[in-house]
Design goal:
mainly alpha, about 75% helix
């Protein structure tokens, strides 16, 4: 959990809140969304408060800063996906082991 949060919050600190953008960066958001509610809350913050037309001062990161922040947040989501798949694999392996042990007795 600490690694995923470190990468996600690091990406937000590097590139700003606008690196998580469901409307403009859909492919990146698929990877970021695996982080869970924190990605959706960050996207909501970006869409409602920072990207609205009413906001005169728009703070958007540009160039490589935006790319690095987007990459960090996407890697956090992919790292979380690996952890989820590992837990599911271990659970299925344990069930198979339990079935084999039950057949032997």
């Amino acid at each position: 959990m600490a690694g995923v949060l470190f990468l996600f919050l690091g990406g937000i600190l590097i590139g700003g809140v606008d690196v998580v953008d469901r409307r403009n960066d859909k492919l990146w958001f698929f990877a970021q969304a695996v982080c869970g509610p924190i990605a959706f809350a960050t996207d909501l913050l970006n869409q409602k408060f920072l990207s609205s037309d009413e906001n005169v001062i728009k703070r958007k990161s540009i160039s490589h800063i935006n790319e690095i922040g987007t990459l960090f947040t996407a890697l956090a989501g992919l790292m979380n996906l690996v952890v989820i798949l590992d837990v599911l694999h271990q659970a299925s392996g344990k069930q198979a082991f339990d079935r084999r042990a039950a057949k032997k007795t």
